[in-house]
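Holo prediction — adenosine-5'-triphosphate.
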Amino acid sequence: MLRFKSILSRIVVLHVVAVVITSVFMSLALSWLLNYATNNIHNEAMQEQAVSVGEHLTAQPDGHLELDLPQDLLGLYSQAYGRYSYAVIDDHGRVLFSSLRDNAALFPADARSSDVEFLQQRLGDATVSGASVRKTIGGQSVWIQAGEDLANRDVLIDDIVADFYRDVGWITLPILMVLLIADIAIFRRALRPLREASEIASDIGPTRTDVRLPTDEIPREVRPLVSAINLALDRLEQGFRIQRDFTADAAHELRTPLSILRTRLDLLEDKKMRQALQRDVEGMAHIISQLLDIAELDAFVVDPLEKADLRSVTAEVAEFVAPLALAQGKDVALLGTAEPVWVKGNPEMLGRAIRNLSENAINHTAPGTTVEFIVDQNGTVSVQDQGPGVAEEERNLIFQRFWRRDRRKAGSTGLGLSIVQRIAELHSAVVTVENRDPSGARFSLKFVPLAL
Ligand SMILES: Nc1ncnc2c1ncn2[C@@H]1O[C@H](COP(=O)(O)OP(=O)(O)OP(=O)(O)O)[C@@H](O)[C@H]1O
Ligand SMILES: [Mg+2]
């Protein structure tokens, strides 16, 4: 069986079937009504003719009846005209007067029961249809019959009935088609909230679990489905939250034993051993702090009204990481505009992103070289180093969580750039990476500048 997946196409198909059936039935009904109406007109006309013939009947003093039709009526009932005929019949069924050649009655003699009757009768080749009207004259009842030969019936009326299908009946089809188009428009309108809800739903993902579908405009029939989806999203969001909280809680829980470890290490006599272990502990502390940042970012929502001065945020980061660079025999420089550069975003998060980029740059730049911070008036901050750069094929990998080129390197978790990317996403910013000539990498973050 042919199946229509779309509600609209189902409705169109069923509607077309309904339209065809209705238009056939409507034409039949209308043509029957038309027939009925023309018959009524005919019957009334025949009754009137019988009455008007009756008006010319007069009773003579000796009791017998005379019919004295005026000239115009005589013409109407003449054999030559052939269309109308009359007959007058008495109580005993005898024909008193008749316009027919053989002085016959139009209708059977026994059709004399009521005051008015409408009858039809075959007379030779013709079918005569008409009325029989009772009249009491001079103390006796007579029946006056008037009829019309249907073969000669008014051509106009016949044409109307015959052409009804072609001319009038089919008008129902276009009318119903207009109705169908109106229905489609109505239906599309009714489905619009569903389309809008689908668009909203397409935004839902691991980082956007707070989205819910609007139910106000949704048609009542589909509302249970939409509500059920929203409830499912509630449960999913809760599941996600439990996972996020677990990461954050686990990282938090590790902090206490780590600081106990630190204090214990301080008491260690063996200096060499102490320093080596302290480095390991700092490495672990770094991993934990990166994990905490990730967990926090998963649940972070940027206030759309918040703004940050990119230039001062960058300056702070440069100041913060300078000692680290100097300790490794490297330098930092702050270049670009000296004016404030206002962008949309959370200053704390912007700082974290730039700090991660600068830590990478310091780690990779060769001793004796400089890591440069460049702030541009258009809302871009770049961090560039003179290290090995990032190979083309690694440019997507480096942003993945836990990816690092050298897994053995202590204190490297592979989370830094995924943190940067997440912060960029939250701020509708774009991270790009390119290599410098002759060597080095340049990471840039382009934020949305605040219209002043
Ligand atoms: N400026 C750079 N020059 C060359 N390679 C880089 C640079 N920045 C990052 N990378 C490469 O990308 C990898 C991922 O960087 P990312 O910052 O995500 O992690 P990480 O620095 O290893 O660890 P974490 O930042 O969490 O301490 C690094 O391990 C390194 O191999
Ligand atoms: Mg890093």
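READOUT: Residues 7-170 form a domain with the Beta-Lactamase fold (CATH 3.30.450).
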